[in-house]
Design brief:
Strand order of the largest sheet: 4-1-6
Structural class: mainly beta
Number of domains: 1
Radius of gyration: 13 Å
Shape: elongated
Number of helices: 0
Strand content: over 45%
Largest sheet: 3 strands, antiparallel
Helix content: under 10%
Length: 81
C-alpha cells in the first residue's frame, strides 16, 4: 500500500469531524494523519509497505458543538503483491 483516503461524514453543522487520527499497520508501523473539515476524500501518501490489516484510532474531535464525527469511507490504495 502507498496511499490512504478517508472520507468523513459531512452533514455540517449536524456532524463534527476529526482533526487528527493515527493509523497502525500490522507491520508495527504507524502514521499520524491531519484531517480537515471537508466532504471530499482526504488523500494521504503513505510510505510504501506491505500490510494485511490496519487500525484507525486515537481520533481527535474538532472543538465544535456537534458530538457526531463519523467516518463514511476508508480506502487503502497500492498494488497487490
Amino acid at each position: 500500500m502507498d496511499e490512504l483516503r478517508l472520507t468523513l461524514r459531512a452533514d455540517f453543522p449536524h456532524d463534527s469531524y476529526w482533526t487528527q487520527a493515527t493509523v497502525a499497520f500490522d507491520d508495527g508501523s504507524r502514521e499520524v494523519l491531519q484531517l480537515t473539515k471537508t466532504a471530499a476524500p482526504q488523500v494521504f501518501a503513505i510510505a510504501p509497505r506491505t500490510v494485511q490489516s490496519l487500525k484507525l484510532f486515537e481520533l481527535k474531535k474538532a472543538d465544535d458543538a456537534s458530538p457526531f464525527p463519523a467516518l463514511t469511507q476508508i480506502e487503502v490504495w497500492g498494488t497487490e503483491g
